[in-house]
User: What shape does this take?
Amino acid sequence: MTSLASTDTPGGADHVYDVLVVGGGPSGSSCAYWLAEAGWDVAVVEKKVFPREKTCGDGLTPRSVRQIADMGIEGALTGAHRYSGLRAHAFGKVLDLPWPEHPTFPSYGYVITRHDLDAIVNERAMKAGATVWQGTEAVEPILEERTGGGNPSAGSDARTAELPSCVGAVVREKATGQTRPVRARYVVVADGANSRFGRAIGTSRDRNQPMGMALRGYYTSPGHDQTFIESHLDIRDGEGNVVPGYGWVFPLGDGRVNVGVGLLSTDRRWKGVNTSTLMDHFVAYAPKEWELSPATSLGPPTGGKLPMGLAVGPRVGATTLVVGDAAGTINPFNGEGIAYGYETGRLAAASLGEALLGGGAEALRGYERRLEETYGLYYRVARAFIRIISRPELMTLCVGTGMYSESLMSWILRIMANLLRPDETGPAEAAYRALALIARIAPEGA
Ligand SMILES: Cc1cc2nc3c(=O)[nH]c(=O)nc-3n(C[C@H](O)[C@H](O)[C@H](O)COP(=O)(O)OP(=O)(O)OC[C@H]3O[C@@H](n4cnc5c(N)ncnc54)[C@H](O)[C@@H]3O)c2cc1C
Assistant: This one.
């Protein structure tokens, strides 16, 4: 970690980095790692000091593990709890669903606190050569006059327009209160779900798209070393109605479990549901073996937003890219965001590399194409799925039917965790293609 003071940058105060990354969570640290690994001069500003808490379920799926392995740090997860699948509970039935065998992804995941995980990944970026300022907040973007291209306020839909040219940030070191400009040829916005920096340069969330809210707390539990993570697909509100969301118990292997509830607030009728009440109900009704109670609680739960389905934009400007939660990249099927933070950070690094090699603004636009190729259809299918499960009678029918068949639920798990095999024509792929056809022909606003 570097201090902001005086001669901290290679070229002093006038130094212009190739890339400045705002935020050192999964998306920012992954982007910085892949850029630094390719030899680019990259700086990261992170307002907190690692290791730091981040409200999360702490669950890594095989998709996340793949990215961690590609960054060469799976060995650093030795203290993390490795697990082999999902135990689904709904309407009195229980199914154990192991992670599938897959040519690209491992068949296991980990549960690890973000306190530990994010410090490991950020350090990886630093060791690869990124300059990292912790305890330092980007308080204001440095914008340049546009020389062409779109203007976010000019288009009919701001999310499909282009961001203004951002060429750095005014940053403030928390310990000293000292502020100074940091300049770069390109800027990556990786500041998470609330994305104040992103909003300052013109991003916004499409309020017609799904949004999640989630709450989590830690408990001591005799089940802390279970080898399956647990999801409850029939959580209920104060009146006993099934709501679109799920409750979870994720074992950490260190005496604790991470317990939480997530709710989709797409449909108007779910906007008023209180997640604290949902959490209290879930804790009271979770299987007794976990021994969840106020006596085993390690503190009050904390919550956060889950912007999903690429609902935030614009994501590209002539000098700027937006990644991770700041771009709304969470998977709407399951609320998973860590893998998508790592992946979009990496996709952004690939486009930035091409831009830095001479491709300029046009190369940067390749990021949007990469996002569309990687997630476009899948997220349209997910949004169609959410429209279905936001109706309680359809949600009950879908989940209730699925719980009668282990093979059907295994396919659903593969779809929801984005672990389909492109080279295979198995039932999960066939079911997904049927859903994809619906998503292609059904209007989004329906
Ligand atoms: C309750 C809950 C449970 C969840 N459970 C899971 C789960 O089990 N598995 C999963 O995969 N996903 C889960 N998610 C989603 C996951 O937490 C996010 O998708 C993920 O953290 C996104 O990574 P990110 O790097 O984009 O953003 P963040 O992790 O939010 O990182 C952003 C970073 O930017 C920093 N920052 C912000 N503003 C500035 C600024 N102006 N200057 C400098 N630094 C700044 C922040 O301090 C932070 O470190 C959960 C989310 C919630 C709320």
Observations:
- The chain has three domains: 12-80+111-208+308-381, 211-307, 383-441.
- The chain has ten helices and 19 strands.
